[in-house]
Amino acid sequence: MIPTDGFQIPQKFIVAAILSACFVMTLSIPAFAAGKKIILDTDPGSDDAMALMLALNSPELDVRAVTVVPGNVTAKQGLENALRMISLANRCDIPVAAGAQHPLFQKLITAEFWHGKNGLANIELPPSKCKVDSRWGPDLIIELVHAAPHEITLVPVGPLTNIALAVEKDPSIIPLVKEVIIMGGSITGGNSTAAAEANIYNDPEAAQIVFHAGWPLTMVGLDVGDKTLLSPKYLEQLGQMHGPVNDFIYQVAHYLIDLSAKFGSSGTPMYDPLAVGVAIDATLVKAPPMHVDVETRGEFTRGETVANRHNMVERNVLHGDRYMVEGVDKVEPNAKVCVEVDADRFLQLFVSRIRGK
Ligand code: BDR
Ligand code: CA
User: Fold this and answer.
1) Does residue 49 sit within a domain?
2) Which of 64, 149, 155, 245 is the most exposed place for a label (fewest CB within 10 A)?
3) Ligand 1 pocket: which of 183, 186, 220, 263 to mutate (most atoms <8 Å of CB)?
4) Atom 4 in ligand 1: residue holding the nearest Cα
5) For the chain, what is the domain count?
């Protein structure tokens, strides 16, 4: 008991008062302060733009940095786009860093054909008020992971060049990264080629390094992205409200929906935003564990993510002039591969986070 003037307050009331005060304080902390810390590695990119704005407007996430990788557009254009978008969202507090200038072992393949000449659906955003961070993207990733061990989730939504460079330069980050959620790959055919998805096809060697690093990794590939179509119905909902981010995303989505219609699709696949969606809420997808290798040599299959669904291979033993199957060997899963998605729930989440912003 704590003595007071003339009477005593029972200890249980004091404890209850302290607990209530703590509860009120917790509620009043801005939600982003308690969010999952992520680094978005991106090649912006029109669906990258939607992913970034979803991340910035989701209280579950705390975007610690945006690192830029070449892919949909050149590294220079991607950096300019990232800065303009961060500025539009009024988030100059988030470091935006340039990274790799080209894939590890092949020429860059850019995709203005799909994303518009400037990569942002030909929408001219105002010049950025934010300045580029002076650190090199992979170095920034390394620094932030060491500064917050076991807390950072990497969300790469472009080719995996920057992530591979960070791992190669400082493998000690591997056990310190909380999780890696990748937009890339497919176990049911590609979009760049019959076999390969674009982000993996644009740097297969980097992808092989990242898949085999030994950290918890979730692959959000075409298998689920193609089921997550933003249709005119959702566009209309975005069009009902206004704000700088809302209006920008409305125009991006409009451009992509029109483009998809030319290819006979009822909406635009939300590839990159879905990876952010999985970072927000992993229950949006079903993702069984599988062993995934990246094909780096195949004539028709370079860049394919080859997934072992049963996590076992036959053991073939040489007997004279032939091999005989003598059993099976287990292979360890290295990825959770998204195979199902609650598309409507995700699309509603996306629209609700962007509307009016
Ligand atoms: C991926 O490739 C890029 O065009 C998109 O931004 C997305 O990251 C889809 O294959
Ligand atoms: Ca992308």
Assistant:
1) yes
2) 149
3) 183
4) 72
5) 1
For ligand 1, what atom is nearest to the CA of residue 157? Answer: 8
pTM over 0.85: yes
Residue 34: which pLDDT band, with cuts at 50, 70 and 90?
confident
Provide residues with CB under 6 Å of ligand 1. 45, 47-48, 72, 111, 114, 157-158, 183, 191, 197-199, 271-272
Paired tokens of 89: 């969202």
Q: Where are the beta strands (DSSP E) in 176-309?
A: 177-183, 217-220, 229-230, 268-269, 285-286, 289-294, 305-308
The alpha carbon of 279 and the centre of ligand 1 are apart by a number of angstroms equal to: 17
Q: Of the ligands numbered here, which is closest to the C-alpha atom of 303?
A: 1
Question: What atom in ligand 1 is closest to the CA of residue 202?
Answer: 2
In a domain, 11, yes or no: no
3-state class percentages of the chain: helix first, strand second, coil last, to nearest 5: 40, 20, 40
Atom of ligand 1 nearest to the CA of 45: 6
Q: What is the 3-state secondary structure (H, E, C) of 153-180?
A: EEEECCCCHHHHHHHHHCHHHHHHEEEE
User: Domain of 196: which CATH number?
Assistant: 3.90.245.10
Query: What residues does 305 pair with on adjacent strands?
Result: 294
